[in-house]
Amino acid sequence: MIYPALRRLLFCLPPEIAHEVALAALDRAPTRLLSAGADSSATPVSAMGLRFPNPVGIAAGLDKNADHLAGLCRLGCGFVEVGTVTPKPQPGNDKPRLFRLEKELALINRMGFNNKGIDYLIERMATRKSTTLVGINIGKNLTTALERANDDYLIGLQRAYASADYITVNISSPNTPGLRKLQLGEQLETLLKLLQENRDKLAQEQERQVPLAVKIAPDMNEDEINQFCDLLIKHRIDGVIATNTTLSRAGTEQSRHTAQAGGLSGAPLTDLSRNTIRSLANRLQGEIPIIGCGGIMNAEDAIGHMQAGATLVQIYSGFIYRGPQLVREIVDATISLNRQPS
Ligand SMILES: Cc1cc2nc3c(=O)[nH]c(=O)nc-3n(C[C@H](O)[C@H](O)[C@H](O)COP(=O)(O)O)c2cc1C
Hints:
- The structure is a single chain.
- The chain has helices at residues 3-10, 15-28, 31-34, 69-72, 118-126, 149-160, 185-206, 222-234, 270-284, 299-308, 317-322, 325-339; strands at residues 45-47, 50-52, 56-58, 79-85, 98-101, 106-109, 133-138, 166-170, 212-216, 239-242, 263-266, 290-293, 310-315.
- By secondary structure, the chain is an alpha/beta fold.
- It has one domain (3-339): TIM Barrel (Alpha-Beta Barrel), CATH 3.20.20.70.
- The strands form 3 sheets. Strands 3-4-7-8-9-10-12-13 form an 8-stranded parallel β-barrel, surrounded by 4 helices.
- Helix 8 (222-234) links the parallel strand 9 and strand 10.
- The longest helix has 22 residues, at 185-206.
- The chain starts with a helix and ends with a helix.
- Flavin mononucleotide (FMN) binds at residues 59-61, 64, 83-84, 98, 107, 109, 111, 113, 137, 170, 173, 215, 244-245, 265-266, 269, 293-296, 315-318.
């Protein structure tokens, strides 16, 4: 596999430049090098009313503007999530805003929803050729006051509806001030009610039901998770993605980057995400499928998330450290898991 050699070169570049170079290379790479995970023996998974050819997806944030669907959709994943996209374009935080913690197999980012805006993303979605399922992850602009956040999510829902296979409501990024407050209490209730009512309207108008998922932080306690689950059930949400990045720095104390502000992802996140998945599964009792994300660096991590209650999984940091091979590894492991007598 050529990725370890390519990674050595990429890791000589500043992380954000390496990111752009890698995605451009992915778009141009021959399919035989990429479609590592496209295994016809993979077991399809039904969730959120959709049929996923396999349970492995690319998490949001890797392709914020749907600029790289050509490459990502040839990886053999079951699905790709693009965004987070906001109603208006915005530059995100000042650079540097992405840091590699190599020894810890981790990243810290405070990108701040840098993206070209929803109109651009929808144009890009119109050019997609692959049948790979694509979710659109929506967020709020930095300049929109928190009290008006629902307006931005509504614009996201309405604009994304016709193009998306599913829509993710991102209220768990640590890099937009106050955003995580939307995960709780009355604010969550009002947001979910608004989105659900409008989803019903759109479903009727467009004669197509697009599933809605909500993405959660790994930093909530058991009580908060339980309240969150009850509201998801009450408002007929179709899926929950667990998790986004963490504010914790446990396991990275030795890194020179540990004090950087932002969200931590990769290996130090595995257990936190898994605990969140387990708590969600306990409360949801199978009523809403869980998409496990966070610290999946190998097949064992993915299987662990599934055994904790995830139906599907997503990767981001693992993909940066391991490349396309990680997709194949996880798909193969889930095939073996399904073959094991129960
Ligand atoms: C550089 C970077 C940018 C990200 N941007 C987003 C984003 O825009 N929206 C989102 O929902 N999650 C975003 N994430 C979070 C990932 O989707 C994922 O939830 C998190 O990194 C945990 O998974 P991992 O440990 O496999 O990386 C981002 C993560 C990283 C590292």
